[in-house]
Amino acid sequence: MTNNVLQVVNDNTKSDAIKIQELQEILKQLDKSTIVQLNTSTLSQSYQPVLNVLKLESLMVNHPGEHEAIITVIDELNKGSSNGLRNTSENDFKSWFVRFKLSDLQSDYQYLFKELKYDNFIDLINKKMLIINQLQSQGSSQYSKVFENYIKLKILELYLISNYDFRNGNILNYLKNDTGSYRTDEIDKLLHEYDQSPFISHDLFSIIVNYDFQNGYHQLILQNFDKSKLFSNVLENNIIRLSNHFQSIKISTIYQLLNVSNDQIDLESVIFNMIINNKFNEPTTIDQLSQTVEFGRVPRSNQEDHIKFFGNLVNNVYQKI
Length: 321
Known about the structure:
This protein has 16 helices and 3 strands. Among the domains are: 1-111; 230-320, Winged helix-like DNA-binding domain superfamily/Winged helix DNA-binding domain (Arc Repressor Mutant, subunit A, Orthogonal Bundle), CATH 1.10.10.10. The chain is elongated. By secondary structure, it is an all-alpha fold. α4 (48-62) packs parallel to α6 (93-114). Mean pLDDT is 88; it is low at 317-321. It has helices spanning 2-9, 16-28, 32-37, 48-62, 67-81, 93-114, 121-137, 142-160, 168-177, 185-196, 202-210, 218-224, 227-243, 251-258, 267-276, 303-320; strands at 248-250, 285-287, 292-294. Pfam families: PCI. One of its GO terms (cellular component) is proteasome regulatory particle, lid subcomplex.
């Protein structure tokens, strides 16, 4: 397989972009041990960091559970093998690829591998937004547009599985206003249902978690993520939606509306933690005697949104009867 890599790299009839695509396909077929053992020293100096970045990408995308192997390749990159390709040139695809692909992978490693906390995906989204801004500042090219769309698919999925954050609204507006052709009809349908449904149901959550957005996250989420913690993010978003339309509500009613069991989820504990972490826009309390959540002032939603919410809520309940 090393010979195949050398053959691709040494083929002077192909562009660097085509070579890298072919190298990506080769690495997809390899097991984690073979990937780690691929020797870059036999390659030209300009292709050594390219192959190391491709090795890291292949491990993180196709073998996300192999943490030791991932760390090994990261250590190789940290030794400075890519230092000579930090300056991006519009006409140099190799340096462009190393700079932006490595930034993307490093942010994923920091938030989704090294420090997976489930409550800071919005911070990772902001990292991705910075990468997009850097891409756009370099000027549009056939390379940058494809990679930009790839990162946008990461942003979209991260938004859908994020816990509540006041910045979520800005991300949603960004996604809704972006009409890029990179989104399939299925993805647009998921985003629309997520946005328009009164609550994110467990069924919709399962569809989102199991859907392959073609952004490199599919195996990572299926193999490495705790689905119960991801669903806790969904609960937070649902409870915030309630707080925008109710001034007070019994916890037992929340169980019914969200269609969850108190055997599975301790909603009082979830809401209490949200209060502690200042997730609500208004001062919120729990009356333990009456088992009622007091969301504070009169709901902030305008009348049109309020009517729309309850119309969707009635329809949602009706469909369950």
